[in-house]
Design a protein that fits this description.
63% of the residues lie in helices and 6% in strands. Helix 12 packs across helix 13 (288-308). It contains 13 helices and 5 strands. It has helices at 2-5, 8-11, 16-111, 115-121, 129-140, 146-151, 169-176, 180-186, 202-211, 213-216, 231-240, 250-258, 288-308, and strands at residues 195-198, 221-224, 245-248, 269-272, 312-315. The longest helix has 96 residues, at 16-111. The chain is elongated and about 140 Å long.
């Protein structure tokens, strides 16, 4: 039927329904397009908001991380400062402890005084017979009985007048030995001397021999010390001729007495260089080695001979 009607059916007749349908279709299309556009805008806006929120969250997270890092760094710095301050305090305490220890050591060192400190602080006093007697008593009290100590005690008559620190050796000997020229001529024994001077060192021996020039006259002087001189040579020189004066150290004199190269038979005067002080302000009896040799020499027959009255002791 449609074929029979042809195209006129479409163009003629009642086409209102078709027009209404087309109108509705045309009206619905822009509405749909606007709704689609609105939907697209909303999606874009939502996507933008999502992007913004994501960016804000990322930024806030980064800020939080930065804040946490800053707090961690500040905490580390504070800890390091605390450690440094602690180390400083520790080093200060250690330095203070070292300072205290050094002060204590200095105080301890100051307390320890040597012989030279004691001698320099004290005024030099001339030696007296009581000094020698006390020295011998302290020495013999360790090895001798009371009876033996009494037998070895020296009397006041055994001593000459002591030097009052105003005399030289020559002036002192002139005062002690006023008849030296006569005594010198009377002495004829070998291996013995009239005047025996005992000092602490070889240098002091040479010095004392020089000081004897105005006193000795024509007397022969022999030096008795161990430095650069053999004992056999000294024994030969003492046995060949008459020697009037001998000056030496107690160690070598004691060795000569033990070997009988030197005897006490012709001895009249024994002079001890008691008051002389060396560079360290030490006397002869302040040096332990010399003191030991002196006591050994005195114990080798000299004390007994002095008690018997064969010679006298003087402290120069």
């Amino acid at each position: 039927m449609a074929d029979d009607l042809g195209d006129e059916w479409w163009t003629q007749g009642d086409n209102s329904d078709v027009d209404e349908v087309t109108r509705t279709l045309t009206e619905e299309q822009p509405i749909k397009s606007t709704s689609k556009k609105r939907k697209g805008k909303k999606q874009i806006q939502e996507e933008d908001t999502q992007h913004l929120t994501e960016e804000q969250s990322v930024k806030s997270a980064s800020k939080k991380r930065k804040g946490e890092k800053q707090t961690q760094d500040s905490a580390k710095k504070k800890k390091s400062k605390k450690i440094v301050t602690k180390e400083c305090f520790i080093t200060q305490e250690r330095s203070e402890e070292k300072g205290d220890e050094s002060k204590k050591n200095k105080k301890r060192r100051k307390k320890k005084k040597t012989i030279t400190d004691v001698l320099t602080s004290s005024e030099p006093a001339p030696g007296s017979p009581a000094d020698l007697m006390n020295l011998l008593k302290n020495h013999f009290s360790q090895s001798r009985s009371v009876i033996e100590q009494e037998e070895l005690t020296l009397k006041d008559s055994c001593f000459l007048s002591s030097n009052d620190l105003t005399h030289s050796l020559s002036s002192y000997l002139k005062e002690v030995c006023p008849k030296w020229a006569k005594i010198q001529k009377q002495h004829t024994q070998t291996q013995s001397v009239v005047l025996l001077i005992v000092c602490g060192s070889a240098l002091r021996t040479i010095d004392l021999i020089k000081q004897l020039m105005t006193f000795k006259g024509q007397a022969k002087v022999q030096k008795l010390f161990a430095k650069h001189i053999k004992m056999d040579e000294q024994i030969k020189s003492l046995s060949k001729g008459v020697t009037h004066i001998a000056v030496g150290t107690p160690g070598r004199i004691c060795a000569l007495l033990e070997k009988e190269g030197l005897t006490v038979q012709g001895l009249r005067y024994l002079i001890l260089d008691w008051n002389y002080r060396d560079q360290k302000h030490r006397r002869m009896v302040d040096i332990p080695e010399v003191k030991g040799d002196l006591l050994k020499m005195m114990d080798h027959g000299l004390i007994q001979s002095c008690i018997e009255g064969t010679f006298k002791i003087g402290l120069f």
